[in-house]
Structure formats: C-alpha cells, structure tokens
Amino acid sequence: MVIREKYLTKIRPFIDKDIIKVLTGVRRGGKSVLLEQLRDEINSPNIIFLNFEDLGISNLCEAKALHDYVCEKIGESKEKFYLFFDEIQEVIGWEKAINSLRVKFSADIYVTGSNSQLLSGELATYIAGRYVSFVIYPFSFKEFMAVSCDYTFDDYIKYGGMPFLSSINFDPDISKNYLQDVFNSVMLKDIVKRNKIRDVDLLERIISYALANIGKQFSATSIAKFFKAEKRTVAPETILNYLKWCEEAFLLYRLKSQDIKGKKILKVNEKYYVVDHGLREAVVGENFKNIEIVLENMVGLELLRRGYKVNVGRAGEKEIDFVGEKSGEKLYLQVCYLLDGESTIEREFGSLLEVKDNHPKFVLYKESSFKGNYEGIPAVRIEDWLVSKVN
User: Fold this and answer.
1) DSSP 8-state class, residue 139
2) 216 phi and psi, to 5 degrees?
C-alpha cells in the first residue's frame, strides 16, 4: 500500500479540529484507502467507520437513520469520537445528520464523496464555513513508481494511475477490464443516476468524443455538428449539461484559455482533459497512437495534483499548453512527444519566448535529440519532471 503522504500532510493540521474534513475526487481514485490511512494514523478506540456503498448498511442512507445510529453508538460518552463516512452522497440529507453530530458530540468528522456538487447544494448551508475540502486524484507516476520499480513510463502512458492496478500487477487484459468497469461505475452511478439521465447512449457518445479529443479545442456546437453528420440532432445546451455533469463527477476537467499579454480569461478556446488517461485507453483506445495528447493530459493533471490553478495560455497567435499559478507564482509549460528538428524546436520554444516575464518556463518532451536549453528555457524529459520535487 502506498502511504499518500502528500494528502496526509495537508489533512493532519485539521485533525482534532472542530471542522469537517471532506475528501472528494473521482470514484475509485483512492479516497477510501486514504480515509483508512487517516483512521489507522489516528488509531483511537472511539472510531465509527461506515462505507455507504455497503448494501449491509443501506438502512442508514437517510439522515435521521444515520444520526440515530451514531447517537446510539456514542451514547452518553463525553470522550472524543472519530467519525469516518465513505461515499456520503449516498445518504439523503447527509448534511443535516453531519451538522447535528458535530454539534451534539465531541466528534472529529471525515467524509468522502464522488461529486464536486457535494457541498454546493441547498443542504450544504448546514455546514457552510464548517468544513475544509481536499480533491484526491488517482496515483501520479511518482506514486506508482513507489509501488513497483518495474512499472515503466510506457506502462503509465497506457494504464494511467488508478490505484487498484497495482493489486493486479498491471496484467493487460485484467487492467483493461478493470478500467472499463471504473468508467462504467463513474458514468452510471455518478452521472446517470445522480442527474436522472435517460439517454445513456447519448452520454456515452459525448464522453467518447471528449476522450478522443482531450487537449483539443472544441465546443458544444462543434459536437452538435458532429452528431448532425451522423443523422442525430442534439441541442448544444444538452451537450453542455452532459459535459458539466462529467466535470461534477471528476471525470473531465475543463481548462479555460488565458490571454497572457492581456492578462484576462477568454470565453473561447476551452479544452477538456480526463482525470486519468488510463480510462481513455479503456474507452477509446490507442493511447500510444495519440501519444501527444495523452502526454499533454498527464502533465495537465499533474499540475492540478500539485495544487496549481491551470489555464491554457494564449500569447498573440501562439498557444502555450499550460499556465499554472500557485501562491503568487506562475509556471509555463509546453508539452511535446518528439523534440527534434529545427522547425519543431522553434515552435515549442517560440511560444514560451513570447512571454516576457521571469517566471519559470519549460518544454517537456518524451523523445529528443535536443539537450540543454534554448535561449535560457530548459528542455526536460516528461518522466523526469513527473517525479521532480519542484515545478
């Protein structure tokens, strides 16, 4: 088991504090195991741990029932209790129960959920200002290297970072079946069921289109035209809703375009990236055939994993793959598969040279005959950057 120290370090300062700890992220992305690691680290005899995907406790998936169950367990005790609730969104009106337990007892509360709207509904007013949230991502390349030194960068390109893959030793057939199962679980439980979608086939087609075109500029209108060519009429508004629900389920991430010179966020040229490129391989296939966009996807998600606010950059007519901002600092990244040939080198470095500030800039590559830097901008292997401690 990989101890997810990066997340534990962020959460530890809030242990034993009167604030609810909320862990969100894509289904099967590691939230449950992290919750177990927190439980083991706290190591108290007064722990109540409930996973609401367990049918054995389906009778507790309603606020009053959950509240009464915990009250009975704690009884008249004045000792501190630690409450761990996994996939809390399965409990109807969970905020009411959690807030009441927080007020009623000396309780340190931890919850997980697989939807970004977990804390934005009407009932969330019950815990407004009383929680701190953490987004949990699938394994980074560095984390998977900690699992197995035999796990190569090419394996990561194909299979991605869903944590359970290490338990099946990355067997090709089993891994693909598992990733397809993860995708179906996210789609059916966190998108279809939650949003009461009737046209599941349309949802699948929209997701497949987005996965096939990660890192490319497209709009709801362009998807609508694509479907029209296939003799199917779909309103752009419907497509936008479906994409939004995919974002809420942490399946897709939408990055806005930033005019670097004008210092403003543009309303066009947005791009979508998938939470784990292994899911793209399972659904669309051909990660190696489309390696350029897959590499771009893994770099974009790594920036998010490292806590950056990420946009796509525009410098005049040129595009910069990623602009990351964190704690007042910026980072500019270009991503390519093959950094070779004068025209390619000038293109990849040229976009970054359009930016005249002194913030760090890098061109990341997988294969290259070019070494060192170009007019002061370093070229770095993607796999080396992925395991680096900084930037």
Assistant:
1) P
2) -110, 150
Max CA separation in the chain (angstroms) = 75
DSSP secondary structure code for residue 288 in this structure: T
Under a CB-based contact definition with an 8 Å cutoff, are residues 76 and 41 in contact? no
- The pTM assigned to this predicted structure is 0.93
Which residues contact residue 186 at a Cβ distance below 8 angstroms, ignoring those fewer than 6 apart?
A: 26, 27, 28, 114, 249, 251
pLDDT band per the 50, 70, 90 thresholds, residue 317: confident
Strands (E), the chain: 20-24, 47-51, 81-86, 107-113, 131-135, 252-259, 264-274, 309-315, 318-326, 329-339, 361-368, 373-374, 377-381
- The sign of the CA dihedral 315, 320, 325, 329 is negative
Task: Quickly count: other Cβ atoms within 10 Å of residue 51's Cβ.
Answer: 16
Q: How far apart are CA 60 and CA 88, in angstroms?
A: 11
| Residue 272 to residue 256: CA distance in whole angstroms | 9
C-beta separation of 336 from 364 below 8 A = yes
Encode pLDDT of 222-281 as tens digits. Answer: 899 999 998 899 999 999 999 999 999 999 999 998 887 656 655 566 899 999 999 999
